[in-house]
Structure formats: C-alpha cells, structure tokens
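User: Please predict structures.

Assistant: First:
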Amino acid sequence: MKAETALFAGVSLFFAVSAAVYGRSSAEPAGTVALVVSCLMSALVAFFLWYRHRKDGLLPKDRKGASVHEAAGPVAFFPPHSAFPVLAAAGTALLGLGAVYGLWLFLIGAGVLVPGVLGFAFQYAARGTDPVRPTGVEDR
C-alpha cells in the first residue's frame, strides 16, 4: 500500500498546487472550490491508505521477494443471481427522471430505490459472520 499512498498523496499535492495557481489567476470561485474539494478527497484516500499501511504492515505486493500465493486469502462467498441490483438501478433511473419530470415520479423512484438498496444490503445478513463458511455448515 506504500505505492498507493504515495500516488494519492501526489494527486492531492497536484490539486493543491493547481488550486493555488488557479485561485490567484482567475476571478471565478467555482473552479477553485472544485480543485480544493478534489485535493481534500484525494488527501482523504491517501490518509486512509497510509493508516491501513501503518496498521497492517507490509503487504506481500510491497515486498520484492513475495510469492503470488502469499497474497491469496480464503475464497469468499459469491452470491447467486439477485433482483435487488436491478431494482436499485430502476429506482435510481426513476429518481433521476423524477428530477426532470416532476415530484410524482421522484417519489415513485424513491419508493422503488429504498427497497432495492435495503434488499441489496441485507439479503445475506442471516448468513453469519464467517465470510467463508455459511451458518450451519460444519466441517466434514
């Protein structure tokens, strides 16, 4: 994660310098605000990556002599087909169209989006906390 931290810190520094130069040379505040927000967002990602690197230590991809199998973790649960992503996408589309055509379509979109997102988020909540083995499955 060292390389990712340095990359996002560099992006943040670029946006900070760009905001300073643009802020001095232009009378328009919207561009300066956009560059400052971009700087802050990339700095947030850099801080998160730095914190995880500090907490987790070196990852196998950060070491030169690491093997591929060192980075492999347990195979996780891959969900089967679900209708909730389609429902959430349809709700989002209706929400966007409602912003154009009126409040009535916006409310219908919210009514479709909320169950889609909640179902998408909680459809496998009863599986348990083990990401590899579902609840109720014993070793044979």
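Second:
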Amino acid sequence: MMTSNRPYLMRAIYEWILDNDMTPHVLIDADLPTVEVPRQYVEEGRIVLNISPGAVQQFAIDNDCLGFSARFGGKPFSIYAPINAVRAIYAAENSEGMMFELLPTSDSDEEVTGSDDPEPTPPPKRPSLRVVK
C-alpha cells in the first residue's frame, strides 16, 4: 500500500500559488479531535486560514500534518491539523487550487459488517473477444 498523495499535492499547490504571486489559504475541518485552531474563528465546523509566508511562522506541511504559528487578534497561536483534516488549499484571489475528500481517521470509521469473515471477491471475468467482419 502506498502512502497518501495528499501532503505531496498540498506542498505542490502551495508552491504553485506562491510562484504565481497569490495568497495561499487552507480550509480545515475543525471538528476532528486533534485539530488545534482558534475556536472563536471556526464557522460550521470549518476554518479558513491564510498560510502565506508573511502571515505565518514555522510553516510546515509534512506527511502527517500541517503546522505553523500565527497571530489571531494580536495573540500568537500554534496551528496543528492532521493531513486528513485539510479539505482544500487554494489561492484567495481566484479560488484556484485543490479540494480533498474527507478521509477516515482510523479503521473504526469504516463500516462494520456483521460477519468476521469478509465476503470473498469473485474472480474477475475474462474478456471475451470475437472477430467482427
């Protein structure tokens, strides 16, 4: 199984936005339990944050999380969001960027069936080819 491509895409889109002299913003699902954002700015379970170099310090997008320090109402705050909490990264000026699907946070989020044994997958059907004249 491969690692998630989300952090790689986020880093690429971030650089692309900056290279085009625009302002990168992220949309974060603030309802996930490990997200640390200033709650007074959360609306409908989400928060939009300016992540331009002039607005943040100690900015990092690694394979597990997005993190940085910023000022809100003049007070410093450390932002932390696991990668699966980031719903979009886009340019504020024209909304160009990328949206992401909500990922399950653990195996317990997946649907549970009544049986311990999963239903076997039938073998794929072989393609049938025929000559057409």
